[in-house]
Every structure is written in structure tokens, then in C-alpha cells.
Amino acid sequence: MTNTNLKLYEINSLVTKVLVKYGCNMENASAVADVIESAEAAGCHSHGLMRLPGYVATLKSGKVNGKACPTVENLAPAVIKVNGHNGFAPYALQQGRSHLIKSTRKCGIGVMSLVGIHHFAALWTEVEPIANEGLVAFACTSYKPAVIPAGGTKALYGTNPIAFGWPRKSHPPMVFDQASSVMARGEVMLAAREEHALPDGVGVDVDGKPTNDPNEVLKGALLAFGGHKGSSIAMMVELLAGGLIGESFSFEAAVRDNADGGPPQGGELMIAIDPNLLGDADNWSDHSEKLFEKITEQEGARLPSDRRHKNRIESLKSGVMVANILLDKIRVL
Ligand code: NDP
After folding, report:
1. Hey, where are the domains in the chain?
2. Catalytic residue positions?
3. Which of 2, 17, 116, 328 has its CA 20 to 30 A from that of 273?
């Protein structure tokens, strides 16, 4: 497969230009461009430029309002509600973030629900800015049915990622961000594009038979990671990002969705905690560094997010390689 080297600013301006052409205003276009640029910079290609045709599909079909103007309400001192009014998630998150940070600093904990959004991004891009402010952060969102509940036969849960960010004084935050399926659907799409077989145990075909063919898994369903344990986490995400905040479950989002190839309308929940108010203000950071040292002193062990932080430094210097097959698709747009 041949690639082209692009600088990060070129990726950002390409995405902005395409989204504006298909009906986004600058606020929405640049919020999405920033998360796509961050994903490419960090080597998370499954949520980078590869998603642009999907974003465009939702604008073309009229499912997403590219000029949506999110509204932010304080329902209680520590409870914030953002209504995305049918826009993309990144601009809604941008609008709510400072309110969540302010409430968390005041109350020790803050909760932000996001409704009426279309989510197509990697969640670490959302918890990292909050952890950069010295706060612990959690986020989760649902999708469309793609994962079979443990013991069942049909996709019901979304791939339902959860992300957790931990602030560090002398290092970038520790963040982990993972789908509750064995593999994110975006990774399966990448394997299909690159014609790689999947490892065993990722998913099943339309008849429920195990398969290593990514194209068959895309038509069939994924399995939850860790059997019944991941299945319960996927269910928890449905409840937190749907039932709790008055948004749809993945199966309800799918009924409403027009299957244009982009994300359905759904919800997200974020929680932030101020470690200075909850714990030992003078010591929590040094104390948690001791845990991180114990992890990394083991040969072969690393902290989640180390890979991304390294990639980011490299791509700032050298740009990123983008598959020509994808660039050709984007050029057509
Ligand atoms: P991965 O399995 O690739 O990685 C999950 C986490 O584990 C990452 O934080 C990763 O850190 C960390 N990790 C990986 N290997 C190691 C290791 N050896 N030691 C320690 N930590 C490690 O992610 P998924 O495929 O599950 O998800 C990919 C992306 O898809 C996520 O960003 C998620 O938000 C997104 N997604 C979005 C959805 C949506 O609806 N918007 C739906 C589902 C997924 P590192 O990055 O440093 O490798």
C-alpha cells in the first residue's frame, strides 16, 4: 500500500475545507478537524482521516446539522447538561468542557451529560484536556448495535468505549481508552482496508459463526472483551450514556438512524473529580507516581497512552503517513 506524508496542519485544513464544503460552519468544522488531527498525530488512524467520508455522509444525508449551536445548562452546581442540537460531538464537548472543569473545581466532582450529539471520535481526545487541567476524568458513549451480549446471538450493545484520564505533574496525563468489544469497529474497518485477517475471537459472521475475515465481522457482530465481564461494561455504558441521561440506547439509536455510514444520534457521559479536594492534596500525585514506577519497572510493561505520546512527538517533527487509497477518496470529496 502506498502512502503520502502530510503535516498535521495540512490534515487539519483539509478536513476543515471538506466539512465546510458540505455544510459545516467554521466552529463545527474546526472542532472535528482538531480531533481528527489529534488522532492522526497520535497514531490512532482508526479515528482519524478514515472517518471523514462518514462525517461527510451524515452532512449530505441531512442527518447531522453542521451548523448546530450547542446549549449548556447547569442543572445543579455539579451537574451540566449539553444539548448538541443534532450536531457533531466535538463542538458540543468544546462548549461544555470549561463548565465541567469549573464545577468540578468548586464541588470536588462534576458530571456532564451530552445529548443530541453524533459521536465518531476517539474518547481520549476528550478526557485528556480535562486531565491536563489537573482533574481525573472519565467518559463513555454508546453507538449502534455491534456487540453480542455474553451468551446471546445478536448484536445489541454498541462498541461502547470508556476512557479514563489521570493527571500527572511532570508528565502528560495517563489515559486509557478502550472499546468494550474485543476490538473497536474502526480497527476492524482498517483490517478490511488493509486486507489483514483478524485474530481469533474478535467476531462472528451474519450466521453467528466465528470468522477471521474483517468484512464478514463488519456484516456480522463483534464479541465483548473478556466474555461476560466486558459484556457488563458495555451494558453499563448503555445505561450511563443512555438511560441515565435521557438519551437512546444503541438499539434505539439504530432504529432512528438512516444508515448513511456515519454515526447515529446518541449520548455521552463525562465525570471529573478534583484530586486536591477529595484526597491528600499534598501527596496524591507523588503517591500515584509510585504505582506508575512499579508498573514500568517491569520488563515489557508500559503505561497506556505512552504509545500515543511518543507518536505525537514524532508526528510533530515528521508529519504522518496517510494511505493513498484514503487520500484518493477524500480528494473526490
Ligand atoms: P486499543 O485496544 O488499541 O487500546 C486500548 C487502550 O489500551 C489504549 O489506551 C492503549 O494505549 C492501551 N494499551 C494497548 N496496549 C497496551 C499495553 N501493551 N500496555 C498498556 N496499555 C496498552 O483500543 P480499542 O481498539 O479498544 O479502541 C480504539 C479507539 O476506538 C478508542 O480510542 C475508542 O475511543 C474508539 N472508539 C470510539 C467509538 C465511538 O463510538 N466514538 C466506539 C468504539 C471505540 P495506547 O494508545 O498508548 O496504545
Report:
1. 3-181+224-282+305-332
2. 46-47, 187
3. 116
pLDDT at 252 over 90: yes
Short-list 274, 263, 265, 268, CA closest to 162: 268
One-letter amino acid for residue 112 of the chain: M
SS3 state of residue 243 = helix
CA–CA distance, 333 with 326 (Å, rounded to integer): 11
Query: Atom of ligand 1 at shortest distance to CA of 158?
Result: 42
pLDDT in tens, 6-57: 999 999 999 999 999 999 999 999 999 999 999 999 999 999 999 999 999 9
CA-wise closest residue to 139 among 167, 120, 114, 118: 114
Half-sphere exposure (Cβ direction) of 28: Cα atoms closer than 13 Å: 27
Q: Which ligand 1 atom is nearest residue 187's CA? A: 25
Mutate to test the pocket of ligand 1, among 143, 178, 233 (most ligand atoms within 8 A of CB): 178
Please say whether the dihedral angle defined by the alpha carbons of residues 6, 97, 237 and 178, taken in this order, is positive or negative. Answer: positive
Tracing cell 514500568 back to the chain, one arrives at 296
Fold of 3-181+224-282+305-332: Ribosomal Protein S8; Chain: A, domain 1 (3.30.1370)
Per the prediction, the chain carries an average pLDDT of: 96
Phi, psi of 311 (to 5 degrees): -60, -40
Neighbours of 8 (CB within 10 A): 16
